[in-house]
Amino acid sequence: MDSRELLVETMSELLWERGYADTSPRAVRERSGVGQGSLYHHFPTKRDLALAALERNVAALLPAVSDLDGPGDPMARIEAYLMRPRDALKGCKVGRMTQDPQVREDPVLLAPVGRAFAQAHVSWVKVLREAVAAGELRDDLDPERLAHTLMAVLQGGYVLAIAQQDPGPFQDACTGALDLLRAAAPAVPDDTHHTEE
Amino acid sequence: MDSRELLVETMSELLWERGYADTSPRAVRERSGVGQGSLYHHFPTKRDLALAALERNVAALLPAVSDLDGPGDPMARIEAYLMRPRDALKGCKVGRMTQDPQVREDPVLLAPVGRAFAQAHVSWVKVLREAVAAGELRDDLDPERLAHTLMAVLQGGYVLAIAQQDPGPFQDACTGALDLLRAAAPAVPDDTHHTEE
DNA sequence: GTCTATACGCCGATAGAC
DNA sequence: GTCTATCGGCGTATAGAC
């Protein structure tokens, strides 16, 4: 692997582990073994390196979201996504960035984060609409809202898990959300929409 | 106000705004107007000052949670708490700390955060049990789990709002959670529990 | 308690040789 | 592309006078 790629990969790890403000160029050099000259040859500033690394972390999250987009029963896809194994104590590579003061204040660094969440929201809305159409979810629930609710459950689950140093609360949060969705099935199988085609 | 108290208050603000790692003793001095000598007279290290400030921030959050404990209809209390006006773009004073690498790694700094969430969880479980008992929530929902789910909605809502630089997603997340709770009311008014006494 | 002075290391580069 | 050397400023204190 060339130096440039190695730097980006190392910065990606450090962004996940320590965030942006608390990750120094020195730390990147030491972990990657790439020298000072190389670092500043490939990236004029720490921020430029971080931006590349952040885009990488954003891209790494998209395969997961594709659980939501896939074929098959909408509710099953929701369950698959919510129950996907995650290392709750490490937190979300992307969501973490929102709590870094230097990222929050920098529209350029924040932009990929915003885009990633916007994209996830689209996938969530789609699958939730399909769940309503399939009669798996009451049709008086707003998919746009609910999408934010479920995204928040994941992001907030990480916060709870880290606070307790225990993945339990994260699991609880996800499972509880699933329980609620199931409990919000229409009382009577909805006959306005037909599942046979 | 004496210097000591002024230092704690200033550090509390900065912890909220910038977190721990990115807040320097210098920043505290400059905002508070307290001199170098005084700072290190009252607090031997930055960490000691932060610990005091963090306890203060934790304490400041308890009045809000009391919305949940109060008298009155359980579901109404849940709504009051979820709909409480919050500055979504500023995030949670306490939850924010979980994303600071230097706090995460320091059991002493993390402890007050864990305690705060544990206490909030107790209040949530209580009000959710009461909602079940009052026939406002299906009795096959687990209050312990659901408590984590709802706490996560709030914490995660902040993340979404900051990512989009827009309080909308936070409001959506909260309102969506409330919608789900309402949709998870028992299908038929529950007659095993009597509300008249 | 508060002040000013001093210290040492890290941060985030920049310079210039190879 | 990569190396080593150098830089001004800040972070996090410590020392000692008042």
TrEMBL record, chains A, B:
Under PROSITE patterns, the record lists: HTH_TETR_2
Does the keyword Calcium belong to this entry? no
The record's DNA-binding region positions are 24-43
Q: Name one GO molecular function term.
A: DNA binding
Provide the HTH tetR-type domain boundaries: 1-61
What the entry lists under InterPro entries is as follows: Homeodomain-like_sf (IPR009057), HTH_TetR (IPR001647), Tet_transcr_reg_TetR-rel_C_sf (IPR036271), TetR_C (IPR011075)
Q: Which Pfam families match?
A: TetR_C_13, TetR_N
| Entry keywords, A to Z | DNA-binding, Transcription, Transcription regulation
User: What PANTHER family does this protein map onto?
Assistant: HTH-TYPE TRANSCRIPTIONAL REGULATOR LMRA, TRANSCRIPTIONAL REGULATORY PROTEIN
Protein's UniProt name: TetR family transcriptional regulator
**Which organism encodes this protein?**
Auraticoccus cholistanensis
